[in-house]
């Protein structure tokens, strides 16, 4: 508990300003100010006696008041000492109780720690046992899975080997079939080559026979023309004037191509295509025109050689055709016919 503060001294009841103020007030009540020695300066003897009695009474009251004050201070000091002793004993008791509670708490913490350590140790032991059991069980399962996998791998290897064997057998059969087909084709090719050689030889013989026949006919015709000139020209001369003419199929195909090209030319955007080809419009049109002229099929035209021969034949008589130049022309026509 806190210390009790010391109370100040209380003045006399009904008197302000302490003992000296009380004496002055008492003197005023008794008849005015007191002189030195308690006797009025201009008063008489009885008044001085009263003043002395009053002064004595004041001193008695002051002594009484001082004694009471000291007694009260002594009581208060004793109470303060008592309070200090009680406060020290309480503080000491509180410290002892605090120490005891701390000791109890330390003991409780130690017990809890020991109990926690025991529980943790038991938990660790159980965890280790569970882990060992799980590891043993997992290893067993792994070994079982490995055994199953090995068996499955062995079965797959056997199946793969069997499949490869079947594939090899099929491939061997296919190779045998291909070899037979190849041998058959080679045999057929050999026979075809023999037939082609035979046909070529026969064709060559027929060609030689036809050439000899044509030579013989040309010689006989020339000899007959020399002996009996005729205004009708010789066959070899007419054959020399013939020019190759495209067939109807070629003409129809060319007509179809030209028709499609014309339709494409009508539908296309010529300026855009010229721009894409990085050409001017006139260059692009010129290229189209040159391409069309290159693929166009032209009809056979008479040549100046034929016209010259006709004029020469009309100007000269038939009898003068036996000149060396006419003979050379006849021989060239015969070579062309061959």
Describe the structure.
This protein starts with 17 loop residues before the first helix and ends with a helix. α1 packs antiparallel against α2 and α5 packs across α6 (281-295). The radius of gyration is 80 Å and the shape is elongated. The protein has helices at 18-30, 45-227, 235-241, 248-267, 270-276, 281-295, 304-315, 324-337. The model is unreliable at 1-23, 28-44 and 308-338 (pLDDT under 50). With 338 residues, it is an all-alpha fold.
Report the principal-axis shape.
elongated
Note the beta-strand portion: under 5%
Distance between the termini: 158 Å
Q: Mean pLDDT, rounded to whole units?
A: 77
The total of helices stands at 8
Q: What is the number of E strands?
A: 0
Question: How would you classify the helix and strand content by structural class?
Answer: mainly alpha
Percent of residues in helices: over 70%
**What characterizes the major β-sheet?**
none
Multimer state: single chain
- What value does the Rg take, in angstroms? 80 Å
Segments where pLDDT lies below 50 for 5+ residues? Answer: 1-23, 28-44, 308-338
List SSEs in N-to-C order: HHHHHHHH
């Amino acid at each position: 508990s806190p210390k009790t503060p010391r109370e100040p001294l209380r003045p006399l009841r009904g008197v302000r300003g302490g003992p000296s103020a009380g004496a002055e007030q008492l003197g005023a009540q008794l008849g005015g100010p007191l002189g030195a020695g308690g006797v009025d300066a201009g008063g008489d003897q009885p008044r001085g006696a009263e003043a002395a009695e009053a002064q004595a009474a004041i001193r008695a009251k002051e002594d009484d008041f001082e004694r009471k004050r000291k007694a009260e201070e002594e009581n208060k000091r004793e109470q303060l000492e008592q309070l200090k002793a009680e406060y020290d004993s309480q503080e000491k008791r509180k410290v002892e109780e605090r120490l005891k509670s701390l000791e109890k708490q330390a003991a409780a913490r130690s017990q809890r720690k020991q109990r926690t350590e025991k529980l943790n140790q038991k938990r660790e032991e159980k965890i280790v046992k569970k882990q060992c059991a799980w590891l043993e069980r997992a290893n067993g399962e792994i070994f079982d899975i490995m055994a199953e996998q090995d068996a499955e791998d062995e079965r797959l290897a056997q199946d793969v080997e069997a499949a490869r064997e079947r594939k090899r057998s099929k491939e061997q059969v296919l190779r045998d079939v291909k070899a037979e087909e190849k041998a058959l084709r080679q045999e057929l090719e050999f026979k075809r080559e023999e037939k082609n050689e035979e046909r070529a030889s026969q064709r060559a013989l027929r060609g030689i026979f036809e050439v000899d026949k044509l030579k013989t006919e040309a010689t006989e015709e020339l000899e007959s023309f020399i002996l009996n000139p005729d205004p009708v020209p010789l066959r070899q001369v007419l054959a020399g004037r013939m020019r190759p003419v495209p067939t109807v199929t070629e003409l129809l195909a060319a007509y179809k191509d030209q028709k499609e090209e014309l339709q494409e030319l009508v539908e296309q955007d010529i300026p855009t295509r010229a721009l894409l080809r990085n050409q001017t419009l006139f260059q692009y049109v010129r290229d189209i025109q040159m391409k069309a002229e290159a693929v166009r099929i032209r009809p056979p035209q008479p040549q100046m050689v034929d016209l010259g021969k006709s004029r020469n034949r009309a100007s000269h008589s038939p009898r003068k055709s036996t000149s060396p130049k006419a003979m050379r022309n006849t021989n060239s026509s015969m070579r062309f016919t061959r």
